[in-house]
Each structure stands twice: as C-alpha cells, then as structure tokens.
Amino acid sequence: MAADASQQPATLYLELLVNGVRSHSAVPVRQMGDDLQIRLGDLLAAGVRRDAIECRSLGDWLALAQCPQVSRSYDTNALLLTLSVPVAWLTPQHLSAGPGNNIEPASGGFGALLSYDAYASRASGRYDMASLWSEQRVFTGYGVLANTGVQRWVSSSDPSLGPLLNQNGYVRYDTRWTHSDETRLLTWTVGDFITGSQGWGTSIRLGGIKLARDFRLRPDLITYPLPQFAGQAAIPTTVDLFVNGYRAVSEQVQPGPFTISNIPVITGAGEATIVTTDALGRQIATTLPFYMSSDLLQKGLTDYSVSAGALRRGYGQQSFAYGRPAASAAARYGWQDYLTFEGQLDLAETGSAGTFILSGAGAVFKAGMAGVFNASLSRSDYGNVQGWQHTFGYRYTHRAFNFGYQTTRSTDDFHSLNSFDPLHAVQPTRRSDVVTASWSSGTLGTLGAGYFSLQAADGTRLKLLNLSYTRQLYQGVSVYISANRDLDRHENSALLQVVASFGNSGTLTLGGEPGGGSSQYVNYSRNMPSQGGLGWNLGYQRQDGASQQNASLAWSNRYNRAEAGVYGLPGQHTQWGSVRGSVALMEGQLFATRQISDAFVVVSTDGVADVPVRYENQLIGVTDSRGYLLVPWVTSHYDAKYEIDPLELPPELQAAETERHFAVRRNSGAVLHFPVRPVVAATITLLDSTGNTIPVGSSAVETLTDQWAAVGYDGLVYFENLREHGELAVTLAGGGICHARFQLPGNSPQMSHVGPVTCQ
Q: Could you list the residue range(s) of the whole structural domain that residue 603 is in?
C-alpha cells in the first residue's frame, strides 16, 4: 500500500533567525505535516551548544515538534524560519576590556649609554666638594652590562672635617649583567643585586647570580585577581559596564550568556553596574559589589626569586667588599583568587657559628567583601639558638574610608641576613604596631589618623599618635593640618600648610609649626616644563629667631639639565650647582640628551631633517640634520605608538610607513626606521603607430610596477615610483592593445618628462 503523501518529507530551503540573529544563508529544513526538522549542524553554526540541547534528535536532525523548549515561526512569503531557544543553550561569550595576548616582542639594538650627574658645592669657605656620578651601559641582543659609581673630591682646611675628607676617590656601586626572557617572564642577573623578599621579610645585597620572575616584561599584565561579571541576553544586546560610576566596557553581544573579565579596576571595595540595552531600547541594570586587592596573585600564578652569592658589605663606602657565601629564595603562589601563599628561605655561612638559616611562611587572604588579612611566621637558626617572628595584618579599602592594622613581634634571638654587615648591620624590629585610618569626602576634605608603636632591638621605643586633615578650599588652593603626640615623651607638635597653585606661573606654599621650636616658612616654586625650559625655587624659613634662605634656578633642554642655587643662614651660605644628562651611541652616531633612566628609541628618517615625530600622539620634536631624533623617556617593553608627519616631507619624497607600534627592552636602546625615499615620477607622451596621440580615456599599465593610470589630453599619462627602464601596456579607448617602452633620462630629477613614445 502506498504511503500517505502527507507523511513524505519535503525539503525547504529557509533562512534561519535564531533569537534575533539572522544567518544570512539558506539551510535545508524538512517539513513533515506540521512538523519541521532542522539539522543539528545548522543550529551549532547559529551559536547553539550541542550538549545543551535537551530534546531527542533523529540522528543529525532535530524535530522541532518534539522540542517544546523551542518556539518557532515559519514565514512562507519571506522563506524565513524564526526560532527562539533557551538562553542557556547558546554559546557563552567572553568580553574583555584588557589587552590581548598578541604582544609584539620588544626590540633592542647594539649600543652604549653614558649617564652622568655632576655636582659641586662650596660651604662659606669651610670646604669645597665635587662629585661625579656615572652609569655606563653596553647593550646587545644578549643582555645589558651596566656599572654605576661615584667619584668624589673634597678639600678643606678645617681639621674637624676629617671624616668628610676620607670620602675622596671613586666608589663603585653596582656592576651587573642582565638578560630577560619575555616568553617565560624571567630575568637573569649576574653581578651585584638586591635579593627578592616578602613584605614580612628582608632583602639584602649580594654579589652573585639571581633568577627571578619578572612581570615588568609585560606591562599589560595584571597579576592580581580581577572581578568577573556575568549576565545573559535573549536577543542581540548592548552591554555597558560601569565601575564606581565610570564606564569601563561597552560591547555588542549576541544572544546567550556572557562574562566580562580582565577589567582593570581600582583596588578595594567598589560597585559594578551592568546595563543591558536591547534593540527596542529597553534597559536592565544590575549592581554587583566587589573587593579587589593587589596583594593577591591570580589563581595559578607564581612569583619567585632565587639568589646565591656573597654578602655585600659597606655598600656606598667600599667598592669591592664581599663577605661569606649566602643564598636567598622567595616565592608567592596564587592558590585561589582569594588566597595567596608566601614563603622565604635565607642561608648564610657565618664561620664559627655555623650556618645561619631563616625560614618563613605566610599567606594573604581576602575575606569576601570584609577586606584582606595577612599573616606570617618566621624562624631563624643561628649558633644553635632559635628566634621567632610573627606578623599579622588587616586592611580594608573603600573610596570613602580606609582602615589598616599591621603588627610584628620577634624574640631577642631572631636575626636576619642584614645583621651580618659590620658597617650597616640592621637588627629586626622587636615589636611594632601600626594602625591607620582615613575618611574622605569630596566637599569636607580628608581626615586621617595613625598610631605608631615601635621598639627597636636596642630597646629604643617610639609611640606616636598622628591626626591630619586635608581640604581643597577652592580651585588651586588647599590646606593641610597635621598634629602629632609623642605618647612616651608627652610632647606635641603641629603643622599648618597652605598651598596655592597658579598653573604654569608657579606654586606658593605657606606653613608654620607652633610650639617651643616654632617655625614659619614660605616657598615659591615653578616646576620645569616637561619639554624643557626654566624653573625656579625661592624660600624663606624662620625658626627660633634664626632665618634661612634658599634660592635656585633650573634649566633643561634636549641635551641636559642644569641647576644652581644657594642656601643657608646669613653669612653662612652654601653655593651649589649640578649638570646631568646622558650620551647614547647607536648606529655609530652620538646623541646627547637629558638623563635616560630606562630605555630609549632613536627614530630615523633616512637622513631627512626637520620631520616632526610624535610619541603616543604627543609631538616630541623634529629630526636633526642627520635624520635622527632620540626619544629618551621610553617605558621599556611598552608597545608605544610612534608617528612621523608626512606633510612636512619635501614634495619629491614620500614615506612608505608613517605610524608604528614599537617596544624596546629594559635599559636598552633601539633604532626605529621610517623609510623615506625619493618619488621618481614622470609624465609620458604616448603616440600611436600613425603618429597621433593616444585617445583620452585609454588605460595604461606600467608592467614592472603594476601601476594603472588613465591617459589624459595630448596623450599624457603620469606614473610614480618608476625604474630607469619601463614598459607600458595600453588598452585603447576604441579597442585594441598596444605596448610602449620608455627610458628615464640619466641623472633625472624626481619629476621628468619622457616622450613622445610610440605605442605599437
């Protein structure tokens, strides 16, 4: 018996509209009576998750009649199948306002840098002093070799200044080689360095080798946990995220669940508001509280430092004084976004007392919206004697209120590696309590309070209570009041200061300290413009009947910074002056500039002078007569934007590239080339085989450079970037093709005329 025709499937080709999103293509749909069946693959392509579909499928097909969760509408005229599926079935979307992972590696060339800071002073004939601090760097693709030190000259006829006279000569500070691995975020250091440590531990100076995690190699990387906000959209929707009232994200999302992550926010407590706006303008706002702390590490993130070498002794006074072997290791691990573990281990050989060992462990814990706690426990073993130290702290940060408490306790037998420097021995604090709090209001100002209790290893104690208040009275004028109470000595002190800013004209500061040692002072200063220029400072202070004046001038240009001044009591003045700057060597060229603290970039325009250069959209200067401009204040490993202005190029020159993003390695330099080349252009007169000009509107192609141009009146055609020899293929306006060969005149200018040339 023949089957009922109504049960035979018919295949339709319809456009899908799933939760308001059109597919813009026809897909096969089976129709069996009132039932419609659609391929699972087409649903997946429309953003539906296969594992979320709760209906039984017929192989590769889904029968919509057996899927009550899906509503459908079939428009026979528009050939459109409209489906509405549960939002939970749709593929989650991840929105991020942070940078992507496609970070270009930093560049670094071969070069050298010399930085200097020369200072000289004369103290009313008592002594003359001069010093020259310098840093020498040599950098290659394999790392940076750097050395710092100071040369001092002191002369005086006053025998009481004997210790000062002993400072004559050169003292080396640090010599090190460093190499960084951007892929693994590691930095190797060989030479002099400071060991890594935890907040409850201590750092020391060693001469040796160090391996450390270096998050500075990725300035875009946020290491502390960031909040994640989730929502869902039934139809195409605009999502706006406001953090503490400021819009951080605005994105268009497709139907389905979505999460917003990697949003850099201020630390502490705050509120995030998610506003969704659909196509009809309907809005839904959801407010979520959050608490973030930079003291934590993201889950799974590790930070560590491992060092080994010899203890540095007499730093700043002796150039090559090293002690016994020592090693140090410190690590932090983000176990959860709310819990970070910390650890530190220090070892040192002390001679007859054996090996010194310090071990400690700690943790940082975020208690939801209640704030952040920290605690640690350390033990030192030295000469068969054990000492202990424990710390505990709590901090809560809010836009309007902050509170913090930190305490440290250590036994008399507790030591650190800093205890073994005979010139600069530092014993751990035996007891400390620090309590701070502040309250801020935009109109009433900021009120702060602090309690500080310290007990040093030698028994010295300090208990201090502080209250402070700051308020902006009106535009450019603010007042600062501070009061202190020494609870052990029962002494009081206070400070009142008023600061008035006049923009580029300068800043006036008035202040006074009442009490037994009362003093009053006035100071007027003008900061030096960042692009160079003149700055000054004038000050007067009177204390206990004695007056002291100071005055100084500062001048900065693109090559260096110079300062000079005088200060002191009447008849006992000290005159001083200083000059500081840097000299860089790149591509065999010397560049004098203001002092370079980190990295620098030399912009090259291939010998073209007076080309404006912008760094991060700010004009920083023009290229010199050699076609170079040095940018001295570059942040290393930051992918910054550099631009040149092609409108300032001569008409016969053109730049193939006018904008680039470029990063340079730490403490290194690199050359950024913007190729500039002459524009070799020519007008060519074309004739046909009969000697008549090629008709207007004919099409000409220069075959070597693949350029196209239209033939104008008198058979003229114009091309740029030509070579000495060329060939044209001309499609005639009336039909047909002819070919012509041409040769530019020898030593031709950037613009020349060729022809007439016969096209055959």
A: 585-678
